Amino acid sequence: MMDYKALSCLKAVLQFQSFEKAAQHLHLTQSAISQSIKKLELKYASPVLVRSRPVVATPLGERLLAHINKVALLEDDLTLTWQQASQSQPINLAVSNDVLATWFPQVVTEFAQQDRVKLHIQAIDQGLTRDLLKTGEVIACLSDIGTPVSGGKSTFVGNMVYELVAAPAFIQHYLKNDIRPQNILKVPSLIYDQHDQLWSRYQSECLNVSVNNDNSHWYPSSHGFVELVLGGTVCALVPRVQVQKELKHGELVSLFPQQTISVPVYWHWYELNSAVLHRLSKVILNVTKNVLY
């Protein structure tokens, strides 16, 4: 029989990144938390945590975390079925910033209108969301990778289409109205952070030029991307769905309308027979059919 009290302590330490805060959350002493973690490590003869900053789970700890997350969701499903009570266990999700800035608010709104379950969302690069699912930190995610994780399922929901856009003032000032691929590399552009490979892919696949990011600012905010482009500071790749109005009204210009890049979006979830996950999946599929390509 698994020690679910100890597993709850493990989950809380990883969630709050502190033994002290985990103890406060579970209404236990810090010593009790430490003893529970030791019991797990003695039982499995292996560490479950790396006590560093940040605190991270070992491979064993990741498997135990994934298990307690799944069990918590299933228990709440059972409680909801038999008692018609409100569900207390939140659904932990991993979602990219571009998705959060565009169509995911609609998902949250529609889901909240029919369900009392809370969504706890972690924002991370779309190429890394699936890693959080594999380690058990989240129960579902949106990723650009389609292969399901062990014990999970995935479905394709559409493509996020990105266009290279700029303000008319930027085109006049930096490009002198001469919009050619070789000139784009000489003007200020924008990438999200060191993990952002989209701009490099666009240069290589769409513009057929040698990749050069020397003129790129880093700005880790999807909303900030659009603000900086509208202000004439940079040109940037942005989701088409995010700037449809600005393109229509001439506030932004698509520099190469025929040269877009598509990023596939896959919805991943653990196969738990969970009614609430099924309802969330239906909302996501309903929203994406109208906003993705």
Characterize the structure shown.
This protein has 293 residues and is α/β, with parallel strands linked by helices. Among the domains are: 1-87, Arc Repressor Mutant, subunit A; 160-263, D-Maltodextrin-Binding Protein, domain 2 (3-Layer(aba) Sandwich), CATH 3.40.190.10. The chain has helices spanning 4-16, 19-26, 30-44, 59-83, 97-101, 104-114, 129-135, 168-174, 181-184, 198-205, 222-230, 244-248, 275-291; strands at residues 49-50, 56-57, 91-95, 119-123, 140-143, 152-166, 189-191, 216-218, 236-239, 253-254, 261-270. The strands form three sheets. Strands 3, 4, 5, 6, 9, 10 and 11 form a seven-stranded mixed beta sheet that branches. A two-stranded antiparallel ribbon has the order 1-2. It has a two-stranded parallel ribbon with strand order 7-8. α1 (4-16) packs across α4, α2 packs across α3 (30-44) and α6 (104-114) packs across α13. The N and C termini lie far apart (48 Å).
Features:
293 residues; alpha/beta; Arc Repressor Mutant, subunit A; D-Maltodextrin-Binding Protein, domain 2; 7-stranded mixed sheet; two-stranded antiparallel ribbon; 13 helices; 11 strands; elongated
